[in-house]
Amino acid sequence: MTSAARAHRGELKVYVGMAAGVGKTYAMLQEGRERLRSGQDVVIGWLETHGRAETAAQAEGLEVVPALQVTHRGVVLRDMDTAAVIARRPEVALVDELAHTNAPGMPHPKRHHDVAGILDAGIDVISTMNVQHLESLNDRVFELTGVRVRETVPDRVLLEADEVSLVDLTPEILQARLRAGKVYPQERVDTALLNFFTAHNLSALREVALREVAGAVDEQIQRDVPPARDQAVHPKLLSERVMVLAEPVRGAQRLVRRAWRTARRLGGDLDVVALVPRRAGDDLAEVIALMARERGVTRLVMMAPRPGGVLTRLRRDLLGALLERLDGVDVMLVAAEPAPPAAAP
């Protein structure tokens, strides 16, 4: 996004946590109250207290924009009235649960689309989300926890945010909050502790959250700080470019996501090459090597060969041929999707 476009757009701040119950919504409301006390015009566009008394108490004194109601298959559903928020013209709108999927019949399918509209109207937004809802982490979270997250947010939403703040708790403190009934009703606590809220899952998600927020902050700094005068004249001598070889097989989406995340960490670009069935006599390795040299590829990503099968032999042959042809290019092999971890006894 250009600096000119940003000048007329509201600013987005996102509170990120590793899981439900760490205090993201509480922190959002606290900041809203502080801004209100400092003289800013603040409204709640959408709030989910989940029955948590401490969270609800923080909303007292803040104006709430009434929800929009739609009827779907005879059921009345409520969601944020984005048009009403924009018409109200506050300085700051508090919008909970950025990854939420809107009710059928709403103007936009996802809440992050609503937030984009509010920002385009020149209104600042403070929002919340859990790290497992980042689209590129979908496979990784499944591998770590055995839980497939259905609601996702494109990574660019977080990466383009003006400010990202981590709301952090240790796994032990979050589990204690859970046992005390501060996260879910008491009848759901035991199930939660045995499934998603295990010490293993929370520790893994906490590490992911810390890493993601640090990466988002780094990108924000690089975006907002103008380059030094000598950097503007002399471009980087070495830039990274990642190429991923994607086959039309199970796990291809996971492979491309892993390659995208690698390119992002390296601060480079990504090329996706879709491999098609080979004909006899085709020298696929030579074609790929030629493209890699022309594109200045520094790292190649492909699916790791697995024992047995014709496809495995073809991958192994392709890998060997590429290693012979691509001097100075690092090769990254991505393992097949593992089985999800067993639930804690």
Notes on the structure:
The protein is an alpha/beta fold. The chain folds into two domains: 222 residues, P-loop containing nucleotide triphosphate hydrolases (Rossmann fold, 3-Layer(aba) Sandwich); 99 residues, Rossmann fold (3-Layer(aba) Sandwich). It is 43% helix and 17% strand. It is built from 14 helices and twelve strands. Strands 3-2-6-7-1-8 form a six-stranded parallel β-sheet, sandwiched between helices. A four-stranded parallel β-sheet has the order 10-9-11-12, covered by helices on one side. A two-stranded antiparallel ribbon has the order 4-5. Helix 4 packs parallel to helix 5 and helix 13 packs across helix 14. The N terminus is likely disordered.
